Every structure is written in C-alpha cells, then in structure tokens.
C-alpha cells in the first residue's frame, strides 16, 4: 500500500474535480461566495519544506536495525513527513504551511509480531517514544508526536502485517494481522467467500489495527456492528509482554480487557493481530434511495425501522442542506434524466406536498438472500410511506455506493481554494437527535456569524441502533482574508463539539479522541471516568513511551 | 424483597420436592447411588451458630447512622450472616457447617444515591471496607470479606434503590436504580408496555446492579443481548466522585469506561443507577421444543441458526445426560401422556433412527408479531429437520419457561442429602464447542474416578452468537464418606475450569470471577491483561477499600 500524499488525502494523482459537475460551481458560489474556477492555494512542493534533522542515537538505530533489518529503518524526509500526522484539517493546513516542528525521528516497518516486540523492546531500552501508524487517516490528532517531546520518536508503521492468517469457517472468525488495509482485507476474505463488512469512509486508506485503536464504525454497522462488535480476540505487544484475549463471543471475566484496547490509540501497546467476526458474502446487496419531506420525518422513519422487525445494513438520511449539496455534485444530466427529475419533483410537490428546499435524501441498505432482501424492502417501504417518504429506487443508492470513499478528496479540493472543511460526528439516544441537531446548527451558524464568515453546515444520520443513532456533521467556511484560518476553524469546531457534550451526545461516535477531542473528554465521561483511563495508561506505560499525550 | 435463606437458595418455605416426580428417585439412585427418601443432613438452626461480635467503631457507626438513619444500620446477626456470602456451593456448605470466621460487621441500607455517597465517604474516612450487595446470588465468591480483613467491613445492601425512574419511550431507554430485583424491574416496565428482556437463572433473587457488576447474561440473550449490551449509561459512586457515562448507543471516546464498570464486582465503586435498553413487549412469545438424535446434531443446528437470517430469542440444547435428567424430573404422567410419549419414542426410533439414550432436548424461543414468529418458526424448523431433529411443539417449552428459575432449589435438596452439586459455564467459538465439551467430560469424569466417587455431569448449550456460544455444565457427586466434601468438590470444579482455559474457552460466560474463578484469570486474559485490570483497580481504589480481593 503506497503512502498517502504528505499534504492531503489519498494517492498522488487522485483528486476531486468539479468540472464534470455543472451544478457545483454555482452552488458553492452561492453558499460560500467562492469561485471554484481556480485554485488559489496550491500545495507547496516538498523541496520547499524546512525539516529538522532526525535525532536518532546511533545505539538506538543499531538496535532498530537489528530488530527489523536496516532497510526497514527509514529516516527519509518524505517518510518522516508522511508519518508526522494524520489527515485532520489542522494537520493538512499545517503540513501545507510547512509547519512541521516535531517530526518522528525514524519510521520503522516491522514484518511481523516478533519484530514489533523487538522494536518495542529496543525503544523502551532507549527511553524512546513509539507511535503506532496504520493508514495515517486519523482526523483526531492521534499520530502526532508532542511538540515538546525531547526523546527519540519512532513511528511504527504496521503496513507489512497485512495478511489474513486463518479463517475459521465453522465459527466465521478470521485471524488477521493488524496492519492490513481495508481493500486488502476484503480481497483476502472475499476470495474465501467471506466479508468483514466494515466500511468506514476511510476504508481504502485505513487499517484493521487503526480501526480497533480508534473504535471505528463502518457504514454497514446496522448489520455488521461497530469494530468493537467485530473484534473478538486480540494480540497486543505491551511493555509487559503479549496481551492476548481469546476470541470468545462474550465473557464474564472481569472488566473487559478487549474493550480497554479498543479505542486506546496506541497507549497500551501495539495491536498486532485480531480475530474478527466475518460473515458469508451475501447473495444480494442493495442500497435503495428514498426521499423524505423533512429531516424530522426521515429521522422518525429511521427510528421506527430500528424498532421494527426489519433487518437492514445501512440507514442514512441527509438533512436538507446535505441533500442540496448532494444534488449539486451530480454529473451532467442527459435530457432524459432532466425530464425524469422534473417529473419526480413535480410529483413530490403536487401529490406529496413536499417543499423541495426541505426535501431529504435517504439511503437504506439490505443484504442477504433474494427473498430476505425483498421482504425487508417491502417492510421498510411501508414505514417510509407512513412518514410521508417516497422510494426512489436503486439508482441513487448505487451511485452513493460507488462514490462513498471519495468524500475526503473534496476537502483538499476546497483547501486548494482557501476553504477549510471538516466533520464532527456524535452519537446520542433517539430522543436527543432533534435537540442535538438544532443545538449544533445554532452553534455552527452562531460561530460563522461571530467570525463574520460565510459558512455551510450539513448533516446526516447514519449508524442506527435500537436506542439511538449517529449524527454526522460536515462544515466549511470561507475564512476572513488575512485571518488565521486555523484559529477561525477552532471557533467553529469547538462550538460544535461543545454543543454535543452540552446536549447528552458523545464527543465522537467513531473518530476517536486523539488530541482534537481531548478537551471534551471529561465533560463526556466525567472526571472519575477520566481518572480510570489515566490509571489504566499509567499502569500499562509508566514511562509514557507509548503514544504519549493522546486521549488524556 | 425479603432476604434469601441464610443456608440456601430462595425464600424460607420454598423448596424442591421429588415427591411429585416418580422417575427422579430411581434415576438418582442409579446415577449417584443415593436414596432420595430421606434427608441426611438437615440445615442447622440459626441458634446453633457461633458468631463473632461485630467490630464497628462507635465513630463509624455514628457516621453511618448519619448517612442513612439509625434503623438502616444493622448489626443483627441474621442480617450479617445472610450478607456474609453469596450462594456458591462452597458458600452453602460452609454456612451449613457454621464455618463463619469473618462476617461483615454491619449491614447498611441506603435509600438513594446521596445516601450511598454518604456511606462511602464515611467508610473511606474510617478506612473501612465496603462490599456492595444486590440480591446475594453470586456463585463466584464475589461477596465475602477476606478472611484476614482487620478493618471494619460494611455490607452495602442496595435493595432500597428499586425504582424505574424514567422511561424514554422515544429511545426505548429506561433509567433504573441499581438495587431493583428482576421481578420488580419487569413489573414496572411491563406496566408501561416495555421489557428489559434480561432473565438470568437468578432472576427472582438478583438485581440490575448485580447483573452489571458481574456481566450477567439472560436466557433471551439471543434477542436482547447480554447485560453489557443492555446497559447503556451508568452512575457509579466512586472515591473520586460520581462516575457518569452517557446512555449513547455507541461511542469512540477512548477505552470504554462503561465496559470497565461492567464486571467490576464493586471494585471501582458502587453502581447506583443504569440507563438500560428496553423493548416494547412482544405481541407473541413462544418457546418451542425440539428433539435431536445427538448433541452434535443439536449443536450444528444452533450454529446454522446463528448463521441464518432467522431471528430467535432463546437457543438451548441439552446433551443426552441433561435430557435424561430433564425427563426424570417430569411430574406423574396421565395414561394419555404415557401413550403419547410411547408413540413419540417409537416414531423417533423406528422412523428417524434415534437411539433414545443419545437423544437431546432443545428449546428455541421466538418473539414478535404473530406473522414474524410464524415465519421464524418455519425457517428454524427447516434447519432442525436438516440436522435430523424433530419439532415437538410448545408443551415442553412452556413447561421449561415456567420452571426455569427453580433449578437452584435442587442444589439445596441434594445438599440436604449430602450431595454437592454445582455449575460451571463458559463461552467459546463454534469450532471449539465439541473439543471443550469432550475435554470437560474427560476432566469431570476423570476427577470422579480419581476421587473414587459416583458422579453425574451434564451440559447444555445456551446463548448463541454469530461466532460462538455458551456451554453450561452441571455436576453432582456423592462424596466419599468421611472425606472433606469441599476438598473433593474442588478437585472436580478445578478440573472443569482448567479444561475451559486449556481449550480456548473463557473462565466464565456470565458468572463472573469473584474468588472462585480468580485462579484462572491469568490463563484466560494473559498476564498483561491481568496487569491492566490491576492498574485500573489500584488507580480507582488505592486504599483497597472497595470489595478487596475479588477478581485479581
């Protein structure tokens, strides 16, 4: 797996374009006052960056080379820059600015668990810092060395641990090395007729170990569960030896050690292997589009689906602003498409009483046997109808399914044009959804107003559970010329995060804590909760060698 | 809720009898060489016990009375004896022997969370030990003060915190005080049209807080999940203040604090309240009986059901010994019943090729709308048939459903006759089930042989998951006359537990660690796993005032 761009998302040469999307330019012009025609802030060239020399004592370097061989110990400047951070908007802005005060001193690429153990042993002996690195897709600041870290910093890239070691087809469990990227994992499982079913937006550029370390969730979580449900057994290299939990489906053996490792962001050790729940590839897989007259109607329908006997794999409904953004990113339509669209909107207005600017697009996924999928679609269709919604078929769903991993590229596209865009997501009980939605809108638009900037804020529900759901907000704004973009970003981001915890929602549903969300941890889990997490980290890593400064 | 018998399970006056079960006497005679006709070891009277005086400093007593009022501070001898232990077979044998070296010094009954806080504050100020007490049904030694504890020991009985405070019908979440017993919880929820769906065997004599503190699982876990799934938000009184987690359905906010409290057995603090997932009472609820030709066939069917699109609430299949025991506990049959049974067994032998001594009884539960239940039954019926099984209808299932909470009374009945009986249960991946089953049978019967005793060992599968299931073993033996019954019990129990961890199964699926299972913790979760749990407890309770000596 090639590393991502040092200044943005994805591989070199892959990027978002507005040129085949005729409605996007006018939409952005109207919403942000921005002319998409030209990029104003092209990323700098790598040669322009001023980088500090690595501080790697010869003895440590020799020990690391002994652990993994010389060619897997890299002090290459690009390697160090790519491994310095994740892909939060703060990371991208600073990378592009050349604001790189503390790079890792060395990137080490072990081949297997024994080599990970050897690296950790060498690092601890030298009192060095170890930061495990999967795909580098963190948007919560989980990968950056503390600015004031004076000890040598090792970025431990797990990318070579990329194999499915064994599939237990009787238990439907796969033993998998933690450094495997999403596509390579699915490729190996699919070849045997199985799937993990875990598809976060970062799927193409994130790893199993990263998902576990951050408590990830994929878009099909309604069927497959979150990564916490998928992960059954663990192997973790720790300062006191191999931490091993058995891949049992459930256990009563004290506070769950498995759940301590989930979300630990490298602070307890290095995850080298997991035994994960897999399922047989479904006979049929469909994502169907629906339209609702309002966001409230869409939310109510999702809530009723979660309470029903229907089995779905994806539940998603966008609010009106996100629906409008979604329509604005359509490719050029044929005359036939345009006529169909015209007919549909006329029907929605005249027959169903939709106000088109309030309309909300929804996707619901189904998996299983043909008859099962047909039955579930029928049952869901009734619920949708009861809430005034309309089934619009598989066309929009298929499109969503194809484009689902492309969203992060839009962020770079906007940043090239001086516009920061970011996301904040959270989970809450069903009864809090509209309160949180309203509060975040008030907070976000309040922040735009306070800054005197033109901004856009949109949201979708995804990941339904019996008792609640995730709300996923995306925002962008056009900074005041001459102002510090990051400082302005902080005002907006902080307002939204504060609205979460003030209204009974978690600081994140699946993006982790890192450094970005750490200021809200105590408000989320209470001071005694933070104390428990601190006790855990202090006990496991008294020398603070394991990714220090993250979470707490 | 009245306290249980000090020497056995359940309320005074409620007991198991063999007199209406004509087949049981001959069965026990054959299997254990025991004559049921007379009890040989009636429990002693309370007056015979020699009890140490409580050691309760006047200052602490005054502080406790200030916290909860004088009448809720009890040094009554019976109160102290009832609160001294749970209901493990080791507990019952020692209680009956009058072997009571370390009782709690005082039993305190707070009315609410504030009073719990006041009690904990007073206890910490006096360096006393606090042992939270729910229903006292622990069979893992989670409630006993360490024999060498020299500080005052407070048993904190949560029984007065028994109210459902609020039902959020939009989110289907109920805010409930932790001291509520199963029946009172369901009564309050049912009155509003909801159920928690958590029905462990201890249901009538255990509490919500106890379920959480021990990671309980109920017989309908296939539908409702384990208590870990049911529990969404928590309030826990800790030495550093109120630990509060939000009742969100899922979160990425670091290692899960909720999961640290689950299974913590009072070592992190006192659980005072939980927000639990509830569901609307199902329109229909059915438990259907099935017969399989062998245990292997029954296990394979359960495994296929877990892999199918069927939604069931209960999956249970007994091995041949448990099936035979089950038949032996039938009440006297009418001539019609006998003829029906004769016809059935003839059909099984002649048409389906069953060997009757290998036959296995199974129950599968269904809940939901009438049509949903009918569809699931039909789909399950096909799977059962594919594995050579036969549907025998709702009669045996209804009987099971009525008698399900009576099993613990049999243990006292046998102990009255000098026979110790106990259970050990575990979880494992589907692929390990037959290995573990065989290993436990070899270990259990090997232990009987080693001791030279006649013993019986039986098993059922319950609690199916996509990746595995729980195996639940019950054993009884007739000790060597004159030998130490407890020492002989330890040989059998240890052999079974060791077979679990030696074969990739957990030390327990839902009975917790306490002191009974603590010797196997390191083999289950590895030494670094134990170190994490120790770090957690040490950080939360540096003075070891909270139920010391449990789990680790």
TrEMBL record, chains A, B:
Limits of the FAD-binding PCMH-type domain: 100-281
Keyword hit for Flavoprotein: yes
Domain of life: Bacteria
UniProt xrefs under PROSITE patterns: FAD_PCMH
A Pfam family: FAD_binding_4
Record-linked Gene3D superfamilies: 3.30.300.330, 3.30.465.10, 3.30.70.3450, Uridine Diphospho-n-acetylenolpyruvylglucosamine Reductase, domain 2
Keyword tags: FAD, Flavoprotein, Oxidoreductase
InterPro entries, alphabetized: Alkyl-DHAP_Synthase (IPR025650), FAD-bd_oxidored_4_C (IPR004113), FAD-bd_PCMH (IPR016166), FAD-bd_PCMH-like_sf (IPR036318), FAD-bd_PCMH_sub1 (IPR016167), FAD-bd_PCMH_sub2 (IPR016169), FAD-linked_Oxase-like_C (IPR016164), Oxid_FAD_bind_N (IPR006094)
Family note: Belongs to the FAD-binding oxidoreductase/transferase type 4 family.
Name of this chain's protein: FAD-binding oxidoreductase
Natural source organism: Conexibacter stalactiti
């Amino acid at each position: 797996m090639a590393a991502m761009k040092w200044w943005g998302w994805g591989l070199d040469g892959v990027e978002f374009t507005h040129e085949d999307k005729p409605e996007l330019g006018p939409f952005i012009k109207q919403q942000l006052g921005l002319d998409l025609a030209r990029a104003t802030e092209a990323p700098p060239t790598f040669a322009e960056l001023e980088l500090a020399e690595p501080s790697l004592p010869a003895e440590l370097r020799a020990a690391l080379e002994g652990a993994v061989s010389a060619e897997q110990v890299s002090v290459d400047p690009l390697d160090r820059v790519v491994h310095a951070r994740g892909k939060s908007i703060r990371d991208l802005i600073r990378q592009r600015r050349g604001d790189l005060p503390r790079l890792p001193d060395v990137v080490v690429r072990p081949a297997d668990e024994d080599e990970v153990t050897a690296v950790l042993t060498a690092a601890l002996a030298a009192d060095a810092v170890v930061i495990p690195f999967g795909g580098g897709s963190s948007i919560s600041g989980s990968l950056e060395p503390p600015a004031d870290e004076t000890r040598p910093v090792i970025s431990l890239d797990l990318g070579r641990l990329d194999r499915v070691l064994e599939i237990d087809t009787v238990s439907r469990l796969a033993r998998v090395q933690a450094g495997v990227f999403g596509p390579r994992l699915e490729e190996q499982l699919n070849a045997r007729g199985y799937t993990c079913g875990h598809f976060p937006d970062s799927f193409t550029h994130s790893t199993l170990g990263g998902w576990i370390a951050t408590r990830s969730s994929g878009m099909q979580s309604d069927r497959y569960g979150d990564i916490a449900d998928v992960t059954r057994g663990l192997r973790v290299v720790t300062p006191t030896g191999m931490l091993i939990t058995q891949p049992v489906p459930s256990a009563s053996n004290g506070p769950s050690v498995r759940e301590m490792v989930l979300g630990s962001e490298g602070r307890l050790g290095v995850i080298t292997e997991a035994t994960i729940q897999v399922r047989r590839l479904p006979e049929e897989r469909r994502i169907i589009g629906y339209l609702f007259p309002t966001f409230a109607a869409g939310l109510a329908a999702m809530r009723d689906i979660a309470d029903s006997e229907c089995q779905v794999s994806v539940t998603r409904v966008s609010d009106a602003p996100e629906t409008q953004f979604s329509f604005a990113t359509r490719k050029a339509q044929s005359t036939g498409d345009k006529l169909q669209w015209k007919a549909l909107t006329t029907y929605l207005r005249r027959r169903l009483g939709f106000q088109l600017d309030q309309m909300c697009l929804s996707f619901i996924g189904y998996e299983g046997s043909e008859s099962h999928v047909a039955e579930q679609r029928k049952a869901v269709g009734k619920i949708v109808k009861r809430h005034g919604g309309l089934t619009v078929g598989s066309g929009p769903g298929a499109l969503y399914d194809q484009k689902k991993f492309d969203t992060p590229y839009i962020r770079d596209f906007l940043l090239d044009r001086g516009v920061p865009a970011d996301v904040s997501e959270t989970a809450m009980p069903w009864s809090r959804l509209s309160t949180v939605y309203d509060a975040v809108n008030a907070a976000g638009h309040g922040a735009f107003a306070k800054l005197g900037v033109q901004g856009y804020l949109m949201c979708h529900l995804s990941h339904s559970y019996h008792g609640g759901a995730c709300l996923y907000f995306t925002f962008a704004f056009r900074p005041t010329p001459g102002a510090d973009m990051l400082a302005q970003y902080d005002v907006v981001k902080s307002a939204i995060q504060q609205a979460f915890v003030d209204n009974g929602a978690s600081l994140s549903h699946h993006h982790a804590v890192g450094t970005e969300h750490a200021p809200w941890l105590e408000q989320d889990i209470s001071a005694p909760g933070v104390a428990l997490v601190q006790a855990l980290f202090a006990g496991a890593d008294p020398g603070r060698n394991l990714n220090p400064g993250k979470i707490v």
